[in-house]
């Protein structure tokens, strides 16, 4: 392949590769190691995927020219093949318009599904917090119980 189209990048375990909202300049092919793709808050991440060897990620921001829809970090030491966003966009522009439209629609649908999943996970966390409060002894229950005994 031509020089500058593909490059390798080493990402040590625990290192963040990109964050939600970052501009997408590249997509990546995992050569070795593992990358976690997640959204939400770091203390309650919604894990969308873990990708390993021969898997691509980071393509959506290139396909629909949006920003990164999720965060990515290395779960273990990882070697990536970095694929130029410019080359991806050029190939997409050169593709059959019908096929290019399908790819863009799929990226848009995946973005919407990720948004929906994050919303559902937020609801699950909220319900879990409410259930934990209902089960755990608390002062409100004691106050209500003692007030009823006085009447």
UniProtKB/TrEMBL annotation:
<dbReference type="InterPro" id="IPR050397">
    <property type="entry name" value="Env_Response_Regulators"/>
</dbReference>
<dbReference type="Pfam" id="PF00027">
    <property type="entry name" value="cNMP_binding"/>
</dbReference>
<dbReference type="InterPro" id="IPR018490">
    <property type="entry name" value="cNMP-bd_dom_sf"/>
</dbReference>
<dbReference type="GO" id="GO:0003700">
    <property type="term" value="F:DNA-binding transcription factor activity"/>
</dbReference>
<dbReference type="InterPro" id="IPR014710">
    <property type="entry name" value="RmlC-like_jellyroll"/>
</dbReference>
<feature type="domain" description="Cyclic nucleotide-binding">
    <location>
        <begin position="1"/>
        <end position="92"/>
    </location>
</feature>
<dbReference type="GO" id="GO:0005829">
    <property type="term" value="C:cytosol"/>
</dbReference>
<protein>
    <recommendedName>
        <fullName>Cyclic nucleotide-binding domain-containing protein</fullName>
    </recommendedName>
</protein>
<dbReference type="InterPro" id="IPR000595">
    <property type="entry name" value="cNMP-bd_dom"/>
</dbReference>
<dbReference type="InterPro" id="IPR018488">
    <property type="entry name" value="cNMP-bd_CS"/>
</dbReference>
